[in-house]
């Protein structure tokens, strides 16, 4: 039993050659199709003993890719004892030895591994869907994007569309498939094929649609493609680098794309590598690192401005913080200072709070205290009046300035940075509105702020009337509020790890 | 389009044309000592202006060779310490010499614009100083070619970076870096969160300030503290010019290295171990030359504060050798480059 491999290539002869030679050396029948517009010099030697053909112009997203694969398949079908044909690109990397692939395919004779979803479900992230086929796309998307978009707009506006011939059940999916020889034979013998090839000439990315449609018509689809091909949030293929080796080595895919031409480490590791030692395939791969990277771009820097991120554009009214934080508001500076000191002591687990001593006789409280002492300060980090005219020289993380001259140079960004820097624990700070009216206004407009006004209801009302349209969560507490209650409240509200006694 | 916008665009076009002509004019002062540009292999090219940087050069070249820079275009602005002789012997360096004024060449921008336009049309160009070491996400496992290919795939023509000032545990005069060694080993500390960002509407450019220089030397006038945003990597066309250093370029679409929608774009960090024992002599020299920005106001501030100022505090962070540390601190981002 033999496996046929078709490689569609257009650049990097030495890299394609290495893969073709490796596969051919392990006993596969390999045909490399080279884009007809590319100079053939050096290619035949590079890919030998694999066979090189160059019959079609096969630019990205054109029907030429489909015709080129059909040409190669016709050549392969003439060979005896062939069971399956896999389509690869010049930048696909075999992850497992060919023997494991033939072992797997020999137990799935006559079965096809191809992604063929109904087109209505959508695939990729281009937003075209059925319009890939029903609109005419004479302009190359990669080279003439503007013309492509205008032609789509015009056809949509005037309702110009084409009827899908033969009431085809259109399917869509990854270009990289593995089809069995009986399926391929009946696909090639399909009387509609010449007409379809003509029809799909004006479709967008027919290589993701035409053969998938035919395969679902003629084949027995047993599973997903054997090639790992990940698309990012913008629908562009993941490029594999040396640092993906770990992820790929745990995967049971037979091929992966798309290999960076500079990933020499990956080629050395996987070409002629030992493989997994079994012939199973479940389509397993751990994409946690890829998902984490996508998440990092989206949310990891929420709340700060960086060289790669400046969300407010032209607006100077910037309110964005990384996470909820607490604000203690009072006009009485001495009271605020005392309260924050008590809170710090509370967080350190060494409170001198009399209430605490009184109820501290129960067993639960004692064990709770002991645990806290052993683990150091927990819950949100407590700051005094950050925006006092003579700010105390208590250090802030990452050398955020406490010197008022520096602190008051874009103070709102300083605050946002502090909340970002302490986002693991959460922050609480004291604020005297008359000292920092700008910060007061900002904090009241920030939905992440959890504000506790300690002066009484009348003062809180006055504050909120001065700053209409506030979006922060504001509550009022009396002067008699003790630090333990406040500490627990902030621990709960800010998602600190403190449990309540 | 509003009239104001039309006027801005016309103004910027005029500015760009003017800077192009100026670069051509200033390039008269450049004399090739070693021109190996005919043999530049395909890949990213680095442009730098140096003056008496001999102790740093070996590590500088090694760092960028490891990243995959294929050729160095270097302007030697009158070195007297043998830097030029050293560079002229390197096979991947093309060297120009000039005795003309650094300030009148807009701090090297005119020379760099001319070199890039003359030799790097269609290439990715990296313009850095000899004391700036670029790192970017995955820089240990992915070369510059991989980075530029990714940027091209995303339709970007430039990449931004934060100039991250590094300092040692002790004051600058006591931070010795032996020639040829990695200066980030003796000066591995940085400010993780001491940065503010502003935005310039005319150039659509960011303006980052902060770091140890702001808190140690510019406490009285933080707005005068030096800019820390740079755009070191550009897919160069002949029509582009370096504006004010690499803080902003023209046309202004090159400055759009940031995301406005709330996501983070791929950006790097230029490690800047400036505060070494070599800084003291440099300060006195630059004060005499007055060839630096704003008549060397930055160096005046260093001299006034005394170079014995210790920049290190218990809140300083030590480089861990992993780019993810800088990404977690919000100093650079992989921008979804998985």
Describe this protein's structure.
The complex is a heterodimer of chains A (501) and B (338). Chain A is of the alpha/beta class and 501 residues long. Chain A has 20 helices and 17 strands. Chain A has helices at residues 13-25, 43-47, 63-77, 98-106, 131-134, 145-157, 181-188, 193-199, 210-218, 245-249, 264-270, 288-300, 333-347, 354-359, 363-375, 404-407, 411-421, 437-445, 457-466, 483-493, and strands at residues 2-9, 29-34, 51-53, 82-89, 93-94, 112-113, 117-118, 171-172, 178-180, 221-223, 227-229, 255-257, 325-329, 381-385, 427-431, 449-453, 473-476. In chain A, the strands form 5 sheets. In chain A, strands 3-2-1-4-9 form a 5-stranded mixed β-sheet, with helices on both faces. In chain A, strands 14-15-13-16-17 form a 5-stranded parallel β-sheet, with helices on both faces. The longest helix of chain A is centred in the N-terminal third of the chain and has 15 residues, at 63-77. The model of chain A is unreliable at 350-375 and 496-501 (pLDDT under 50). Chain B is 31% helix and 22% strand. Chain B starts with a helix and ends in a 10-residue tail after the last helix. Chains A and B meet through α12 and α17 of A and α5, β7, β9 and α7 of B.
Q: Give the overall shape of chain A, derived from the CA principal axes.
A: elongated
Unreliable spans of chain A: 350-375, 496-501
Counted by DSSP, the helix tally of chain B is 10
Beta strand % of chain B: 15-25%
Mean pLDDT of chain A: 86
Strands of the widest sheet of chain B, in order across it, are 1-4-3-2-5-11-7-14-6
Report the span from N to C terminus of chain B: 38 Å
Overall strand count of chain A = 17
- Please give the largest β-sheet of chain A: 5 strands, mixed
Largest interface: A-B, 54 and 62 residues
What's the main sheet of chain B like? 9 strands, mixed
Number of helices of chain A: 20
Strand content of chain A: 5-15%
Helical percentage of chain B: 25-40%
The computed structural class of chain B is alpha/beta
